[in-house]
Amino acid sequence: MQHFDKKIFFATNNNNKILEAKHILSNFGIAVEKTEVKKVEIQSDTLEEIVLYALKKIGKTTCPVVIEDSGLFIEKLNGFPGPYSSYVYKKIGCDGILKLLENVEERKAKFVSIVGLKKGRLIRIFKGECDGKISYKRAGEHGFGFDPIFIPENGERTFAEMSLEEKNLWSHRSKAFKALGSWIQSHKHI
Ligand code: IMP
Predict the structure, then answer these.
(1) Which of 11, 72, 76, 176 would you label with 31, given CA atoms 20 to 30 Å apart?
(2) Quick one: pLDDT at residue 1?
(3) Ligand 1 touching residue 173 (CB < 6 A)
């Protein structure tokens, strides 16, 4: 039976993100609960700005609330879709991105995750990045979003071909949540 000393409330509708965060933070003795607190999302060119704005909009909270925003940045497309990843995924999906990169050899890309923590007046931001490339075709059934077309650096398989545990060895989100976990561990009042 896992022992948890602390708990954070994660404001997201994405259950995959909850599962990934739970797996990482359990190693730090931190439980994760989904919260209905609304994440107010602005359009911005930076993930940091989106997260900071959403944190400020939460208002006063005595519990530690966490918000995360992430995106896929494709080098050949000047970082597109970046902070617009969620919208672009809904509109054109993985197949749309593959189409944009048809006959393009340079396929470098990275995932970025910004995790924001708010408790009382305290606000902290944590960042994780994962370098990789866009595959030539979809592969794998696990995960969500652009997982079927993203191959992390030095690998041959997409995130969607990996278990959650294996994705968490490399992913942007796992790095950001590890940074959050070790920060919380060293701050007794959280
Ligand atoms: P948001 O963070 O909820 O704004 O969504 C970011 C979008 O980026 C998602 O809808 C996905 O399409 C994509 N994305 C972010 N992180 C991941 C990931 O770990 N795997 C696959 N797609 C991701």
Answers:
(1) 72
(2) 62
(3) yes
Share of the chain above pLDDT 70, in %: 99
189 Cα to the center of ligand 1, angstroms: 31
Helix (H) or strand (E) holding 26: helix 15-26
Q: What pTM did the predictor assign?
A: 0.96
**Domains of the chain from N-terminus onward:** 7-186 (3.90.950.10)
Q: Is the CB of 143 under 6 A from ligand 1?
A: yes
Assess whether the previous peptide bond of 81 is cis (omega < 30° from 0).
yes
State the average pLDDT over residues 52-63: 90
User: CA quadruple 23, 29, 35, 37: dihedral positive or negative?
Assistant: negative
Q: Is 69 a catalytic residue?
A: yes
> Nearest CA to 179 among 113, 121, 95, 88?
113
The dihedral region occupied by 140, where left means phi > 0, alpha psi between -120 and 50, and beta the remainder, is left
Catalytic one of 69, 95, 131, 147 = 69
Give the nearest ligand 1 atom to 12 CA. Answer: 3
Judge whether 15 and 145 are in contact, CB under 8 Å: no
